[in-house]
Amino acid sequence: MTLREEVEALAGVGPWTPAADWCDGDTHLELHLDVPGALPDSLELLEEGDTVTVAGQRPELTRLLHAERPSGTFRRTFTFPEPVVPQSGQATLSGGVLTVKFEKRHPTINVTAHSDD
User: Under CATH, what is the fold of the domain 18-103?
Assistant: First the structure.
């Protein structure tokens, strides 16, 4: 085995951990999770207290000649960055991105001050 082959073998594909972002939507929080290729029926959300767990599965491809994209199951648990209304999560899947909106317990109120001059 060449040095290059050894390095490539060591840097093999590990467990699948989809990237995620939290966004502030004024009256709600949005969790965005990159899940391209995931089976829609395999996606699960479980909200418990101040956390939400997202799980799913991307099927393994057969007859691979070279693999860089991880597959299999994933499970990630996130802590809400702000308090939310319990069981208010609503999920959509579009373009390989799972978006879950949660209603904030204390919505952000934007105040604009005007001068009376």
Answer: Immunoglobulin-like (2.60.40)
**Which residue carries 């319990």 as its tokens?**
86
Contacts 24+ apart (CB under 8 A), 38-41: 38/96, 38/98, 40/93
Per-residue pLDDT of the chain (117 residues; tens, 9 = 90+): 566 555 545 555 567 899 999 999 989 999 999 999 999 999 999 999 999 999 999 998 888 888 888 889 999 999 999 999 999 999 999 999 999 999 999 877 667 777 776
Domain boundaries, the chain: 18-103
